[in-house]
Amino acid sequence: MEERQEAANFIEAEINKDIANNVYENGRVLTRFPPEPNGYLHIGHVKSICLNFGLGEKYHGETNVRFDDTNPAKEEIEYVNSILEDIKWLGFKWKEPVHYASDYFPQLYEFACKLIRMGLAYVDDQTSEEIHDTRGDFLHPGKESPWRNRSVEENLQLFQEMKNGKYKDGEKVLRAKIDMSAPNVVMRDPVIYRILHSTHHRTGNTWCIYPLYDFAHPLSDAIEGITQSICTLEFEERRPLYNWCLQAFDGKEKPRQIEFARLNVTTMITSKRKLRKMVESGVVSGWDDPRMPTISGIRRRGYT
């Protein structure tokens, strides 16, 4: 509780600065909770939920729920339903309607095309291994892709062909064109779109290219008019990329990312990936097993 209050106090101070500086109209606050529908929520998510919804309520604003459904290979409607049920059980009410990153796939595609036309994105033929190996590290700059200086026209054509399903998974990606010698390794031409031939639980087979979280998230925030994007500290190094992506958005008000420490509990697993492995391997009876630190497991254990 003390840790959550400390995080809230810091974020409130930042929000008060924004209000005092007239960063957004009429002091309106709109936060968001953006879960990935690839598993059930656990106790670590509760801290984020309480912060986002609690700050929305305190400042007489609202909070959106937006599912980050950009990886159809791991997502299921079961997870969407369980997440909404858990938020309701915790006593919070989101601003209707429920949002999905997939709602914005056409707009995100156009934003990517805009970056290409601005000379800020390019199609790369390198494999994921080659991209990783040429990224460099904290002591050495990265190496530019041989495809980095393709013309705008060629990039637009190739990106459209990616969208039309001409290429196989991993055959091409769209990368932001930033700086391969940037001190922040995150800014070394990160991938923002990849090919994935997988049926989406909402859009079916309409799309075979999907934006990565670092691209979809800031622009989804901007489209919805989010004022504060409150996230955990591992995203602090990605804040420059968050802000960089927003240049594709023309609106006057743009969201601001503020980070807080994630919740860890001694002797408890708070990794959705590890929890999912336990469920799939049969170590537990399901996501709502009373031994699980998921919200549904805690509820089944008897907590009110």
Question: Which labels suit this protein?
Answer:
304 residues, four-stranded antiparallel β-sheet, three-stranded parallel β-sheet, 38% helix
* Cα separation of the termini: 17 Å
Sequence of strands across the biggest β-sheet: 4-5-6-7
Radius of gyration: 20 Å
Structural class: alpha/beta
In total, how many beta strands? 9
Strand content: 5-15%
Determine the fraction of residues in helical runs and give it as a percent range: 25-40%
Major beta-sheet overview: 4 strands, antiparallel
Helical element count? 10
**Overall 3D geometry?**
globular
Give an overview of the whole structure.
This protein has 304 residues and is α/β, with parallel strands linked by helices. It has ten helices and nine strands. The strands form three sheets. A four-stranded antiparallel β-sheet has the order 4-5-6-7. A three-stranded parallel β-sheet has the order 1-2-3. The longest helix has 19 residues, at 2-20. It starts with a helix and ends with a helix. 36% of the residues are buried.
